[in-house]
Amino acid sequence: MIKETISIKNGESILLQDIPTMEYTDFKSEMLDLLKEEQNHCVSYFAFKRDSGLQLMACIANDHDGTIALLSHKMAVQLNPQLESLTQYHFPLHIFEREIYENHGIKFIGHPWLKPVRFPSDRNDQTKEINNYPFYKIKSEELHEVGVGPIHAGIIEPGHFRFTCNGEMVLHLEIQLGWQHRGVEQLFLKKENLLQRNLLAENISGDTAIGHSLAFVQIMESLGAIPVSRQLNLERAIALELERIAINTGDISALCVDVAYNLGASVFSVLRTGIINLTQEWCGNRLGKGMIRTGGTNYRLTPKLKNRVLAVLEDYEKRFVEMSHYAYKLPSVENRFDGIGVVTTKQARLIGSVGMAARAANVRRDIRESHPFSGFSIHPYEAIVLEKGDVFARFLLRRKELKQSMAWIRETLKKMDFTNQENEPPIKFIKMMPSAFSVSLTEGWRGEICHCAVTDENGQLAAYKIKDPSMHNWKSLELSLRNLEISDFPINNKSYNLSYCGHDL
């Protein structure tokens, strides 16, 4: 008989004993029943060691009511453990099961292709090495393979792209990462100092320092029952939106580079610099490192800085709108982006796309709206979706989202009270709830970020799980290149701008 699942909200904690532990048949049935509903999707599914065995934990988010259902199954230690794969019934789970298999050796029977994901040093099967990764192959005298990477030109991180082509036409693309596995999740357990962990969080993916560090501090504040003021929550959300504006502007510039529109590339690049310089004025770092700290901040948003934010945004928007008028209506840009790299709404749902990759394909998935956190719990945000799912849609969505971010920041600043701005220094030590579980979601500029934490009976971290949106969206990039010329790859790749290091934890 299936036990009733329990649900929590984004950023909440719960005792492990309060999460129902199911037999696997019930675990499978309950999870698949939840995932049949379009408003539900899996934000995290992982295993961790507990009581001389393994505990599987799944977090299923409901985008309509803002809850997160928790499902759990415990396995005793056994030789060559096996479970029936859920991927064969719900494909977005494929990446989670592959990771559990790689880390813990659980073989998921019926999984379409149970291949390694990251090749961590402590992987279960040391014989599986990145140099003998089982790439998909098609035997044919008419086809050929093109291998790119893992060493790339410039400063691109290591990743291998294997194209199977018929002439110039790409039939299949497979992407393999994992050359620089950093062991970040294990470092969260080894580094017991709160500041060290905070530094780890903001370096998970360097261009998403605020998005990931915000997910981390929300977990710490929840497990430590640390209150956060309304003002600080609003400041954090403003910092997150400035990060979104900066990166989106830089990506618009990079897309202009890829179609040789040098005027747009130059102007948008300069505009990005203005935003990141504003972040540096605020906290001393252009990427926002040092901005988000547990329980408080060293860098208040003062009335003077508020006026500076408004002035920079006014100047930015004036020049951005003028340049956008030309860039987005230029026939050579439109023709190069339109209809290229299409991912349909059905495909986006099938592979579990998140963030901009999902919203550009008409999948309304935005944590700011569905599971509001920080300042978005105070001032709601309305998600933007487009329909075509091509490069131009991802190009256009960036423009629309950064304009909406500016509007949200302005409205928020109008409603903020600067008359009684108390000092809220960060805390240095934290006493976490023992034997507990916590989940934290934020909407980074790429999309949905999920951090999960498990504490032991002494209130120490026993497991820390991180999911960057790139974990889902690399598959979207693979699919979007099918039946295109291989020369379309650069603009298609840049339209996603996925994270190598955020995936390779």
Helical percent range? 25-40%
Please give the number of β-strands.
13
How large a portion of the residues is in β-strands, by DSSP E?
A: 15-25%
Report the major sheet: 4 strands, antiparallel
Calculate the mean pLDDT score and round it. Answer: 94
The low-confidence parts are none
Reading the helices and strands in chain order gives EEHEEEEHEEEEHHHHHHHHHHHEEEHHH
- Content-based structural category: alpha+beta
Based on CA inertia axes, which overall geometry fits?
globular
Main-sheet strand order equals 1-5-4-3
The CATH superfamily name of the largest domain is: Cytochrome-c3 Hydrogenase, chain B
C-alpha-based Rg, rounded: 23 Å
**CATH fold annotation of the largest domain:** Cytochrome-c3 Hydrogenase, chain B
Can I get a quick summary?
By secondary structure, the protein is α+β, with helices and mostly antiparallel strands.
Structure description:
The protein contains 16 helices and 13 strands. Helices cover 40% and strands 17% of the residues. By secondary structure, the chain is an alpha+beta fold. The two termini are 38 Å apart. Helix 8 (303-327) runs antiparallel to helix 13 (391-415). A four-stranded antiparallel sheet has the order 1-5-4-3, covered by helices on one side. The chain has a four-stranded antiparallel sheet with strand order 2-11-12-13. It is globular, with a radius of gyration of 23 Å. The longest helix is centred in the middle third of the chain and has 29 residues, at 230-258.
